[in-house]
């Protein structure tokens, strides 16, 4: 299966997915990496691994239509079947969501529906978690719909919040778990084991 990864930043989740592919744990190909940020580490990682890496930003186009068409053309020309957001800071236009129904995944560094939504990204999430006093946070992989951090949940893992955690120390432990579960969640899609029923994602039996 051809996958496209959209990323705005350093790209450690992209790296984790690439490693899973290299280690034979995930039978897929990353055919394209798109970033809205020309300096994204994710673009460098892609290029270093021989993957097409494109800087595509709304600012480069005179209309929303042209912008969306450019992205769709790049996806279609590579037969991309699954889009994986890995620290992508822009909203996915609804036309793209319609073209890829239940085929766009996102990873969020908390247990949704808590600590999600607009503005909840990066260290903001971990700061809010610590300030709230919760003892457990974690990682959520979900399907992307029209609202931020809202679509059906595919997989979650818990991470303990320690009394002496800072947003930085918590972010580091959560990120390790992200790297473990994102390739696992993607594998379920690649192997066709996912069924979406309303807000529920059902993982089909092996048999
Ligand atoms: C991760 O924490 C992810 O959960 C969030 O953005 C961060 C991206 O990190 N959506 P990286 O660019 O994959 O290193």
From TrEMBL:
UniProt keyword terms in alphabetical order: Purine biosynthesis, Transferase
Keyword Transferase applies: yes
NCBIfam families named among the record's database cross-references: PurN
Binding site for N(1)-(5-phospho-beta-D-ribosyl)glycinamide: 11-13
Similarity field: Belongs to the GART family.
Pathway given in the UniProt record: Purine metabolism; IMP biosynthesis via de novo pathway; N(2)-formyl-N(1)-(5-phospho-D-ribosyl)glycinamide from N(1)-(5-phospho-D-ribosyl)glycinamide (10-formyl THF route): step 1/1
Molecular-function GO terms, alphabetical: phosphoribosylglycinamide formyltransferase activity
Function description: Catalyzes the transfer of a formyl group from 10-formyltetrahydrofolate to 5-phospho-ribosyl-glycinamide (GAR), producing 5-phospho-ribosyl-N-formylglycinamide (FGAR) and tetrahydrofolate.
Catalytic activity: N(1)-(5-phospho-beta-D-ribosyl)glycinamide + (6R)-10-formyltetrahydrofolate = N(2)-formyl-N(1)-(5-phospho-beta-D-ribosyl)glycinamide + (6S)-5,6,7,8-tetrahydrofolate + H(+)
Protein name (record): Phosphoribosylglycinamide formyltransferase
Domain Formyl transferase N-terminal: 1-186
Binding site for (6R)-10-formyltetrahydrofolate: 106
């Amino acid at each position: 299966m051809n996958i496209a990864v959209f990323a705005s930043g350093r790209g450690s989740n992209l790296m984790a997915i690439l490693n899973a592919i290299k280690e034979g744990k995930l039978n897929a190909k990353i055919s394209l990496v798109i970033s809205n940020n020309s300096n994204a580490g994710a673009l460098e990682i892609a290029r270093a691994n021989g993957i097409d890496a494109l800087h595509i930003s709304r600012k480069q186009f005179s209309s929303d239509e042209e912008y969306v068409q450019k992205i769709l053309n790049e996806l279609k020309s590579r037969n991309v079947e699954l889009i994986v957001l890995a620290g992508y800071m822009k909203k996915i236009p609804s036309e793209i969501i319609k073209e890829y129904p239940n085929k766009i995944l996102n990873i969020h560094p908390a247990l949704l529906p808590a600590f999600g939504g607009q503005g909840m990204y990066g260290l903001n999430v971990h700061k809010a978690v610590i300030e709230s006093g919760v003892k457990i946070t974690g990682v959520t992989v979900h399907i992307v719909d029209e609202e931020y951090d809202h679509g059906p949940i595919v997989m979650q893992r818990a991470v303990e919040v320690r009394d002496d955690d800072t947003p930085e120390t918590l972010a580091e432990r959560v990120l390790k778990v992200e790297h473990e579960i994102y390739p696992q969640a993607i594998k379920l899609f690649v192997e066709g084991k996912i069924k979406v029923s309303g807000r529920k994602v059902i993982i089909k039996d092996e048999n």
